Amino acid sequence: xxxxxxxxxxxxxxxxxxxxxxxxxxxxxxxxxxxxxxxxxxxxxxxxxxxxxxxxxxxxxxxxxxxxxxxxxxxxxxxxxxxxxxxxxxxxxxxxxxxxxxxxxxxxxxxxxxxxxxxxxxxxx
Length: 125
Known about the structure:
By secondary structure, the chain is mainly beta. The chain has one helix spanning 14-17, and strands at residues 20-27, 33-40, 47-57, 63-67, 72-73, 78-84, 86-88, 93-95, 101-110, 117-123. Helix content is 3%, strand content 51%.
């Protein structure tokens, strides 16, 4: 289950506090709504990977979420990930409707060995 840790951003490094993180709603090729998360402003060469936890309220399936099973690689100073709002099997897709915001946690792997966290609720654009 996707549980987003609630943290105080002021306890995190300045570069984490200053990240520009956005969430934009779109539609996948399979017909599901999706969210594209973009995080900009990493110090060059510091962040090597990100794991994410996302939780959201739906109008048809209650509280739902998504999380990464392993870190996704970061190249440069920007990271982007598109996440479907729903699930698909071989025969059908189950839509998660009515999502207007997401609770998002980003956990960073850095070259210094630090493991800072960014967390916030984002409205979907």
